[in-house]
Amino acid sequence: MSFRQALESGKFLVTAEVGPGKGTDVEHLLKDAQIIKDRVDAINVTDLQSSVMRLGSMAVCHMLTDMGIDPVFQVTCRDRNRLALQSDLLSGWALGIRNVLALTGDHPTMGDHPRAKPVFDLDSVTLLEVIGKLNSGLDMSGNELKGSPDLLPGAVVNPGADNEAALDLQIIKMEKKIEAGAKFFQTQGVYDLDAFEKFMKRVEGLNTKVLVGIILLKSVGMARYMNKNVAGVFVPEPLIQELKKAEDKAQASMNIAIRLIKGAKDLCDGVHIMALGWESKIPPIMDEIGL
Amino acid sequence: MIIAEQKTLAEIQEMVAPYRKILLVGCGTCMTFCSAGGPEEVNKLADALVAENKDMVVDKTTTPRQCAEKFIDRLKDKVGDHEAILSMACGNGVQAVASRFPDKPVLPALNTQFIGVEQEKGVWTENCLACGDCILWRTGGVCPVTRCAKSLLNGACGGASEGSCEVSKDRPCAWQEIYHALKRLNMLHYLKGKPQVKDWPIHPGRVVREDLREIKAT
Predict the structure, then answer these.
(1) Portions of chain B given CATH number 3.40.50.2300
(2) Which of B146, B150, B162, B179 should one mutate to test binding to chain A, selecting the residue with the greatest count of A CBs within 10 A?
(3) CATH ID of B2-113, from 3.40.50.2300, 3.20.20.80, 3.90.180.10, 2.60.40.10
(4) CATH number among 3.20.20.220, 1.10.540.10, 1.10.645.10, 3.30.750.24, domain A3-287
(5) Is B146 on the interface with A (CB under 8 A)?
(6) Which of B156, B162, B167 sits opposite A107 (nearest CB)?
(7) CA A65, A34, A189 angle in degrees (round to 5)?
(8) Which end of chain A has a smaller Cβ tally under 10 Å, C or N?
(9) Regions of chain A short of the pLDDT cut 70
């Protein structure tokens, strides 16, 4: 079943993601994808995540399609103007890519080429509009395409925005993204189910699918790092302590993920698991939840 | 106003190295107000250059603006046999002076930073990119093109933390500032407007006002 069919079927969706590395070596990444291939509805491929120069999303998405996996092509507005974005969307389609996640992208200062010229010619909302336009057979300037894609557009939202203004802004933008054609949302990593429930209440009238983001906590250090450096991600102290005290850290991390997914399952339409190299933990997590 | 900072003395030294007699020209408007190239800075830089180069003659003057022909013209009797003009104007002033005196090397003593304001004593912040299509009426008087690090037009990204931009803690999230301003003005509905795509200006800019042009004799 393709991701689009899964989305339309109304089933509880499961997606994961892989991040290409710096260089041409894809052996580990493809192995990770192979492990979860039959357990997920789609696998996202990140686009120069954290503004670090890496192997590209489109190439890796294409490799996943060769393996019979339906990839979600993550496209940020950081590095490409409207010409390059449209061309890459067409190119992705020509290579067998069917799903796109439209993102603004981190600022170049976050990565390893901090003084690169930021582009941001379009943003996540207008990129979604452009996907719709390409799907309709026209480019952004209204020129007719000879052969057009039928991409499934998705977007992201950050339910953990840390103040009222930030959260209102997230929800207003989410509405704009839906208006612009987003058919599904994958959220930033969620650790606070109460806050997530409140968020879902606020967006329950919106006609879309929300996949809760779950980032596997690989270590106490990683949890603390995210609390300090990743906007919208907050790992509560009791979870950090649970991980700290556990003898089997991997099992503790899985237990936390299992609890979070079980708790979120009835609140939303799916889960997006960011395993960060721990893809082998995804099948046992899903077994435990009964997915 | 335009905000600038003086270049390092080392770079200025490298520029002036071939010359023994230079005219150092301050600028009396923006550069004076931002303490980068007014009469006071002209004096300090002249002293520093003479201290470093004993045989160098540095003559000093300040003109009200180096970007307007009538004020640049006041320099014509002073330029004389100076081998080079070291300008403490913004990049605009440097080029205007260079175009008026094409036979003299005109050297920039400053790095022009941006159009902005003095936010507090000794701190200046950027407010306008001169993008050619002002949308401040829709954004509560806060410019996202300039003050959002990504120049986002359709709302905040997810990168803000505790009200600060992801690029640095000392830069407030422009979209949160817009949110607060619009809320204060009962104009929050402006946030929900139709998504905008920017038509970026073509550089170099050129403004033509037919109503003000002199009618050429035919």
Answers:
(1) 2-113
(2) B150
(3) 3.40.50.2300
(4) 3.20.20.220
(5) no
(6) B167
(7) 90
(8) N
(9) none
What does chain B look like in DSSP terms, one character per residue? Answer: -EEEEEPPHHHHHHHHTT-SEEEEEEESSHHHHTTSSSHHHHHHHHHHHHHH-TT-EEEEEEES-TTSHHHHGGGHHHHTT-SEEEEES-HHHHHHHHHHSTTS-EEE-EEEEEEEEEEETTEEEEEE---SS--GGGTTT--HHHHSTT--SSS--S--BTTEETTEEEEE-HHHHHHHHHHHTT-GGGGGSPP----PPPSSP----GGGSPPPP-
| Pair B37, B6: CB distance under 8 Å | yes
Whether A182 contacts chain B with CB within 8 A: no
pLDDT tens per residue across span A178-222: 999 999 999 999 999 999 999 999 999 999 999 999 999 999 999
- B153 contacts in A (CB within 8 Å)? 123, 126
How many beta-carbon pairs under 8 angstroms link A with B? Answer: 95
Q: Tell me whether residues B154 and A163 touch, CB distance under 8 A.
A: no
Residue B129 in tokens:
């990119």
pLDDT tens-digit series, residues B176-198: 999 999 999 999 999 999 999 99
Contact B93, B38 (CB under 8 A): no
Cβ contact (<8 Å) for A106 and B159? Answer: yes
